[in-house]
Amino acid sequence: MDDKEDNIKFSDPSGKWTEIEHLPEWDEKFYHVYTAKKFGKWVMMKTLRPEYKDDPDMRAMIEKEFEVRYNLASPNIIMINDFDEVPGVGKAIITDDVYGDSLAKLIEKGQVDESILIKVNTSLLDALDYIQQNHIVHHCITPERIIFTENIRNLKVIDVGFDQHDHLSRQETEDDIIAFGKILQLTIDACPPEVAQKHSRCRKVAQNAIAGRYADVQELKMALNNRNASRLGIFIAVFLVIMIVALAWLTSLVRNV
Fold first, then answer.
1. Regarding predicted confidence, which is higher, 237 or 87?
2. Do the Cβ atoms of 201 and 226 come closer than 8 Å?
3. CB of 222 within 8 A of CB of 228?
4. Phi/psi of residue 136, nearest 5 degrees
């Protein structure tokens, strides 16, 4: 987010871990979040809060989250790369560094522009699609969990996935679409007036998503691209008819040779 909090710092005599620093601003319900360098490379980590460290159910929870998220591979979801014992911190999930601003912070600071809106429409929707295709059970995606990295402003979703099922329920997929609609609505509202006007269709899509009018992420994507399933179906049908006619014509030519 903005500035790394100068709070609790730890040191590692082995030199593997350096500049270990607690980030209270990033803390989650059950976890404390830290930044550090591992062999000189910036990473982030999260570990159980002190009051939960000796609870076997909480330890099982963090281990399960590591197992679920370790196999995720999406450019728009923060990747987990280790589950390690860190001096002064304890057993922690280690992730890539995602230093930057959350969407919530950008909205608060009045720094939402067209590029941010476009990435919400594309990168965030791709992340959501990936989550649903892999049946990842996750916390509700909110502006606080969407990070735009410093300088490049790549979109990364954090705190994604604590379990994986054979399939997601219809309610879970509908909740994702509604959550996306709310995020899109907040983003378009935070854009400069000329950008909001240029992308006026986004507001309609957001309202429809919040109202639960899209069956799945693919239909939502088509709506954002100003397409609909019926028109796509007609196009495919026409294309098939043309191909059949062309094939029949070629067959007749071969027979007449």
1. 87
2. yes
3. yes
4. -85, 120
d(C-alpha 104, C-alpha 35), whole Å? 20
Segment 65-110, tens digit of pLDDT:
999 999 889 999 999 999 999 999 999 999 999 889 999 999 999 9
Q: CA-CA distance, 134 to 126, in Å (whole number)? A: 12
CA dist., res. 94 & res. 15, Å (int): 17
The Cα 218–Cα 170 span in angstroms is 15
Indicate the pLDDT class of residue 242, thresholds 50, 70 and 90: confident
Q: How far apart are CA 35 and CA 49, in angstroms?
A: 15
Q: Cα dist. 237→32, 149, 185, 233, 246 in Å?
A: 55, 43, 35, 6, 14
Where residue 227 falls among pLDDT bands split at 50, 70, 90?
low
Average pLDDT of the chain to the nearest whole number: 88
Query: Radius of gyration (Cα) for the chain, nearest Å?
Result: 23
Q: CB within 8 A of 55, min separation 6: which ones?
A: 48
Kind plus residue range of the DSSP H or E element containing 18: strand 17-22
Question: Cα(225)–Cα(39) distance, rounded to whole angstroms?
Answer: 44
- CA gap 10, 16 in Å, rounded: 12
What one-letter code names the amino acid at 116? Answer: I
Looking at residue 25, what is its pLDDT?
Answer: 86
